[in-house]
Amino acid sequence: MNTNQFGTVTERLDRNHYETDVEQSHITVDQAAARAADAGPLLVRICPAHVYSIQADGTIGVMAAACLECGACLAVAPPGVLSWRYPRSGMGITYREG
Questions:
Q1: What pLDDT does 14 receive?
Q2: What is the distance between the terminal CA atoms of the chain, rounded to a whole angstrom?
């Protein structure tokens, strides 16, 4: 990991503030569509926050509380696999960089 005057990437991400919406996840996965498209490995690989994981039963797990809201997963997911929207007002990530 590269360190500079601003700290490591992990240190910089740790400065962010997350307000978790425990009532509504802003990400849902259509497991049947994901399985048909074999989308799990792609989602795991593309997400910088490691939101997605492949469970023992082959389904895709989602840890939406860690989402950076970058939208990378939505850009690469096959059609119909993800339902993604920004978290409700006041929820989600607040960047503290700087």
A1: 85
A2: 20
Distance CA 53, CA 66 (A): 12
Distance CA 14, CA 22 (A): 20
The model's pLDDT over 9-66, given as tens digits with 9 standing for 90+, comes to: 788 888 889 999 889 999 999 999 999 999 999 999 999 999 999 999 999 999 999 9
Tokens of 44: 């795991």
C-alpha 64/C-alpha 49 separation (Å) is 10
């425990």: which residue's tokens?
22
Q: Are 94 and 34 in contact (CB under 8 A)?
A: no
- Nearest residue to 92 (alpha-carbon basis) of 28, 27, 17, 29: 17
* Tokens encoding 97: 């960089």
- Burial of 29 (C-beta count, 10 Å sphere; 0-12/13-18/19+): buried
